[in-house]
Amino acid sequence: MPNRQTLFAFLTSTLVTFILASLFNTQFVIAGLESVNVVVPFSDRARMSWLDLQGLAFTYGIVILIGLLLAFWFMSFVNRFKALPKLWFPLGGAIAFIVMIAAMEPLLGVTLITGARTLLGWAAQCAAGALGGLVFSYLNTPAATVTD
Q: Superkingdom of this entry's organism (predicted)?
């Protein structure tokens, strides 16, 4: 059973990852609209971002939670052999997104994350996973103790 620090690190990194992934997705969708000369004012961009955060929370958010759980669990074993948590957990987060996005279309029959239809959009989703892994690694590192 994970300790409180690990649980806090995991939940925080999952939240950070979801927020970034959702915002990246929204911005790539808006960029697609703008590429066909649709003008999207900042207020609409902000509103769309907020609505996507709400709308994706219980779908994409759950998928991200499960993906990161599996990735960080696996990387914790890898970290035992070569302790480089600042490398393994971001790598695990990025790989989780590669697997999740690649699996969504065959399983669901649609591209759930429309912002990941391009290579750059896919890379942005992976960057969200990597940043989440970095947050997990940072928050899960035991604090240095002060000795007399």
A: Bacteria
58-112 confidence digits (pLDDT tens): 989 999 999 999 999 999 988 888 888 788 999 999 999 999 988 887 887 777 7
pLDDT in tens, 4-33: 999 999 999 999 999 999 999 999 999 988
| Cα–Cα dist 67/100, whole Å | 7
The answer to whether 87 and 66 are in contact (CB under 8 A) is no
The burial of 101, by beta-carbon neighbours within 10 Å (0-12 exposed, 13-18 middle, 19 or more buried), is given as: buried
HEC letters along the chain = CCCHHHHHHHHHHHHHHHHHHHHHHHHHHHHHHHHCCCCCCHHHHHHHHHHHHHHHCCCHHHHHHHHHHHHHHHHHHHHHHCCCHHHHHHHHHHHHHHHHHHHHHHHHCCCCCHHHCCHHHHHHHHHHHHHHHHHHHHHCCCCCCCCC
